[in-house]
Design a protein that fits this description.
With about 130 residues, the protein is mainly beta. The chain has one domain. Helix content is about 10%, strand content about 25%. The chain contains two helices and eight strands, in the order βββαβββαββ. Strands 1-5-6-3 form a four-stranded antiparallel beta sheet, with no helix packed on it. The longest helix has 8 residues. The radius of gyration is 15 Å and the shape is globular. The protein starts with 16 loop residues before the first strand and ends in a 14-residue tail after the last strand.
Length: about 130
């Protein structure tokens, strides 16, 4: 059994579960934009509908990123992935959510269609230092 040894640094609150994509693969989603890119090993099983939805689920600002878009990908059948709860801070406003991590996604995932612009109902701004 493969274990993701550095799960804390990957943003999981608990050790994630190792799974294998089913026949015909599975849809996964990536919220991105600003300093984060469309291509990464971090995905979700839930498709965010807006910037606020994405921030509350995925702690995007905490990792120094902004968000404007969402892309749909298909994880190809038979490839392993890790899924588990996202680490949220004790005092942040958040929705419980899971994250999917795929090692070496360039060969394991394919984009489905074009990316979509998220509803901009919130602006994510990274603040440096204290107020």
């Amino acid at each position: 059994m493969t274990i993701l040894s550095d799960w804390k640094s990957k943003g999981f609150s608990y050790p994630p579960e190792r799974k294998v994509a089913p026949p015909n693969g599975m849809l996964i989603y990536r919220a991105w934009g600003s300093s984060s890119t469309e291509r990464s090993g971090y995905f979700s099983l839930e498709k965010p509908e807006s910037v606020l939805d994405a921030e509350l689920r995925f702690n995007i600002e905490q990792h120094g990123n902004g968000v404007h878009f969402v892309s749909t990908f298909r994880l190809k059948e038979g490839f392993e992935y890790f899924v588990g709860p996202i680490a949220h801070g004790e005092r942040d406003l958040s929705k419980p959510a899971s994250q999917v991590f795929v090692d070496n996604p360039i060969v394991k995932v394919v984009r489905v269609g074009k990316f979509q612009v998220l509803l901009h109902d919130f602006t994510v701004v990274r603040h440096e230092g204290s107020a």
